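Researcher: For the record, we're logging two predictions in this thread. I'll number them. Prediction 1 follows.
Model: Prediction 1, sequence and structure:
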Amino acid sequence: MRILLAALALTASIGAVQAQESDLAKYCKADIDRLCQGIQPGGGRLMKCLKAHSKEMSVGCAQALQKMKG
């Protein structure tokens, strides 16, 4: 029973992370295209770029990033 509950909790956590990443892709694509043009994805480079341009990013992207932190 404990294993089943742990598996369900893990599945819920993975689903939440995937939803956050989906929000990030949805709300930050235009900002990434505009602010981080030429930055190679991976290794946290896009996140670093977005954080460096936090004052210039859209409200939706900023909110999606905030959700990922929480």
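Researcher: Logged. Prediction 2.
Model: Prediction 2, sequence and structure:
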Amino acid sequence: MGNRYPPKIVAYRGYGTPNKLYLKGRVLEDQGINPAAEGDSTWHNLVDTVKRFTSDGIPHARIRAHFQNIEHDFLADSAGYFDVWIEPSQPLLDDVLWHEVELELIEPHRRGTKPVLTTASVLIPPAAAQFAVISDIDDTVIHTDAVNLLRMAQIVFLGNARTRLPLKGVAGFYRALFNGNGSQGVNPLFYISNSPWNLYDLLSEFFNLNDIPIGPVLFLRRWGYSRLEYLPTRKREHKLSTARNMLKLFPRLPFILIGDSGEKDPEFYAELVREFPERIRAVYIRNVSRNLKRPAEIKALTDKVIEAGSTLILSDDTWSMAQHAAQQGWITPASLVEIEAERQKDAVPPTPIEQLLGTEEKEKAPTIVIGGAQTGK
């Protein structure tokens, strides 16, 4: 094979309908990165990060999917990535949230070695689901500080899944959205991020450690694959088209969209509201931008959102979003107690570098925009 390390199949969580399943993943070198442990040193974290970004994909690997009584062979691309649709031999029940597909590496294969196998989990929204959620990850779920390059680099390269911190109250709020208003169904959550696929295992571990409902990650960047991956307009196009495809794939489901003000989430979510009138129940935007003009820019979008039959909320915290969702009957009033308790205990302590540079406290506009009406905190 010519590879220094044994191959492995990394299966990203997929999604689908009772009639077709979507799988995505990568065949790459297994450099033996273990789950984060308490007390891992900064140096240990940096070494693991370097491994994630230097592990080579295995080009044109052949993978075989086993599901029900069918087998389906397909090829990875030149970077080891694969994505494929599989049609079950018979429609699946839509009262089961997750379905499992076995994946086997057929080529390349080292003689005398054990088969390379993994299991892909595929989500099918239950028939009883009230809505689906599409959420950004960076600075929406997990503290990244993408508007501060020094802080972001420190968090990404020197941290691990245990040192990464959720934003206040997010875990409780997302569990409340997942469970809905207490009826029998659960509501699927889908995630989008501008982080590279190389960090998928870290993000997945982070979600589990913080008891945040897992879901398919619809979009991450392909690190170093193309110069176009670094262009903000191209990333925005990918995020927009990915979310648009989900609305088309699940036409009976309304959606709640969650993002932050640091990039262009409000703009492309407003575009989705325009394209799919009456399909978007609400747009929740976390105010993380240090640009004091940003709330006014987002405020200008609210009239368009209202005209399309939805609501846009810009909030400094999770609490305002949760209160709105409870008022609308999308989550139970009882869940607010849990969310508030988590919000009080969650914290993002300043790092020594932040304390030295004085960057831990930056002024933000304390503004909430609800349905086009601007109110104070």
